[in-house]
Amino acid sequence: MAFDGIVVAALVHELKENLTDGRIAKIAQPETDELLLTVKSPRGQHRLLISANASLPLVYLTDTNKPSPITAPNFCMLLRKHISNGRIVEISQPKLERIICFTIEHFDELGDLCRKKLIVEIMGKHSNIIFCSEDGLIIDSIKHVPAQMSSVREVLPGREYFIPDTMHKKDPIATEWEEFFPLICEKPMPVAKALYTSFTGISPVTAEEICFLSGIDSDIPAKEYDHDILFHLYTQFTIYLSAVKEGKFEPAIYYDKQEPKEFSALALTHLTGYEKKLLPSVCEVLLTYYSERSQITRIRQKSVDLRHIIQIALERNRKKYDLQTRQLKDTENRDKYKVYGELINAYGYGVPEGAKQMEALNYYTNETVTIPLDPTKTPQENAQRFFAKYNKQKRTFEALTQLSQETKDEITYLESIQTALDIAMTEDDLAAIKEELSETGYIRRKAVRKKIKLKNEPLHYLSSDGFHMYVGKNNLQNDALTFDFAAGNDWWFHAKQAPGSHVIVKTNGEELPDRTFEEAGRLAAYYSSMRGSEKVEIDYVEKKHVKKPKGAKPGFVVYYTNYSLIIDSDIRDLQKISGV
To answer: 385-403 pLDDT, tens per residue?
Structure first.
């Protein structure tokens, strides 16, 4: 993610539009490192959340109120004393630092008009909210930083506020070519790294974008490029950053398979493999990105135990299947022993006593074969020995054929659970999978209890031609969707020979257009283990031809006639109606 100076610049631009000349009507401190300001401006009432959380520092406008402690913390009381009902006269960003400075005008105890500064530093674990006088003296901060914690700067009441310049970075907006050229050439590192270590507000992903726009390899040091190429890099550098000066931002989130991977305030054209989602504001980008990331992280953490159970079971069954396959291979020549026994019975009368082998014409192939014999046994006993060996291998083959198929079906089932866990986006989805594993014996129930009815609905999409398409998110839901919900003339889709979701298209007695078949195929490809592939084979058939064998695992079906199509797994243009 790129919460860099450019995103902060876009945030400042947005806050200026909404909060300038606004009065601070309410100040709350919901958390020890968080403020919530209610601001009434000419453009309406807004809530501004400012968090200096070490793991997730944020500043954004929100409609959501948060409960505050009954007794306000000291920092909150101090702010109320000084700037309650104060007017925000300016919101600024020094250079392109990850710092936002609110200049607030208010009346002091004597009724004189004065100004204070509320400075928000968004710097990871060093994030802070600092309250200063107009002349830069620290009045207080939400986090105190004594000399024992930092040798660079103390953040304590009475100290002078300054921005620590530990990296000696330059302001990229004010940098001229004469300064740019030696700055990046003197660094023995890839040119992209030279950019983000030389200039404030430039993150690694932004540096990659500038190199991409310049058409140069970001991994090669700048000194290896000639003067003209570096001047072209500087030109792209200034063009890209000119949008910051002009306030022309393009807030967006970049998704990889529905998972938010990056966000930015300016376009990131080098992220060609990601789906770009434009949003109207940076605040909305931050809210959406972090809430979705939080949800995905939470679901992954909660699914760890289930994934561990499935992984162990898969490894055990795969080892078993490999062993069974090797044992089956050993029985491939079983018919040879039957033929040996028959040939000995047919031609063994002429074999001398104590012979170690005999030659005979194989009347099945018209070829002469050499048959090894036990010299201590009679021809009849040798024939019985070969028949016994054949019968043993035949019994082994018949038993292993059934057992290996059962093991293969078990592996397929467990892989379908893995795919369902990859698809799961809510705690209800995980609860449904856990219930299925309990029913199939992979998880032991803690106590006998009444079965809970799960509130878990399938994904619902609408095709471009207006047909409703439904996607099962787990095996139990697949069964319910196919055999309880779908009508006989509805169409059923599934990725060929790959674990994945059942997709049902409701026809309502109408004939489906080709475009709807393709869109349903994309859904079946996307919600399968083949997600991300450019070519996925999809089987589709009318639901009435899909059957469930007696005693089969959840989600397992058979069909003996079907159509097929080859499609990609891109569903970005499909309209989702419901489902997470």
So the answer is: 999 999 999 999 999 999 9
